[in-house]
Amino acid sequence: MKRSLFTAAAASALLLAACGDDSSSDSVSHSQSGSLYVDEAQRLIVMTSDVSYFDMCVVTETGLAWKSIPQPATVDSAIYTFLGDTLVLIDLDEGDTSRYGKLFTGGSAGDIYGTWTYLPCEYNRRTNEKECYEEDARYMTQTLKLSQGKLEATIDYHFDAYLSDVEDAGYMKTYFMKQLYNALSNGYHIDADASDIFDIYDAEDYEDFEKSIKRNNVQIIEETKESQTFKIGEKTYTVTVENAEQSFEYNLYGTTNVDASVNVSDGTKTCNSHTVRKIMDESLCKVENMEYLRIRDDVDEEYAYARYYRNSNEVEFEECIKSIAVEQTSNSYDDYYDYTLYKKANDKKEEFKKRSEKFLRKMSKYIEK
Could you identify which of 8, 81, 199, 309 might form a hypothetical disulfide with 278, taking C-beta atoms 3.0 to 4.6 angstroms apart as the criterion? Predict the structure, then answer.
């Protein structure tokens, strides 16, 4: 929907799932090998991951502990075919063949062995149609090197390209601003904090952002990449991005650290939203940080563990925004209807991302520290 880091990456965290190396760089490359079985007669490949260890902030009876946790080996399989010189990998899920295949280029037609680069494309086996979302490859490149008995996976992250795009776009056409317009116009709950200034609407989805401007009768008076002055009704507001820092950190828990601060003023009162989000590491795995840690304790997880550190004043910010909002009534059904239409229009792309996430989850097992 928006230009956020590793859009292909609804899967980004999953790709990092087996990567425990902490590093910061504008561009990062990580590789690891797994075992590969190929049945050329059946066009079947079977990928088996090695046992690996992840460093995790585990919840214990007495508090928190930074531990190296073993992850068992898993086996995944796919049917392969070719469209000319393009490799198509069709996921096998509990014996059922997927309707969609993932596309790779770079090898030789008819030969499964070689070096293949993943495209953000899929092939519909029922309709024989191919659909691509090439913008999803801008921030991440994945290659598979397939040889006799061996699979080598490499993932390159292009953080410099992402930062360049954010700098070019600025912060005024973002999810944060859309939610702010709604809240100031109608006194709605603001489902956003300062970190959402990095969720930038791209050209494909800008129409939805424009609808929010029109629906809330927003009149933009002046705008830069870091600030905007606008009117809603008889009230004038100014938004200023005070701080917008992101850094790349590559490990199990994610990809970016964020430190953001935004001021919203009606000329009399100023509301500040600030958010600090940090990728989990050993220095943060402390009991005194517990109130800021996001704990995952799903029933299908063997361990309860802290996923990341997050310190934000969203409650105070929401109350402040309500106090400076324009007092008027809005037809909430219209908002819901517009949202429903938008959701339907994006279903196709969202379903593609879900399938990509599932596929990339499997690939992530072969990337380990």
Answer: 309
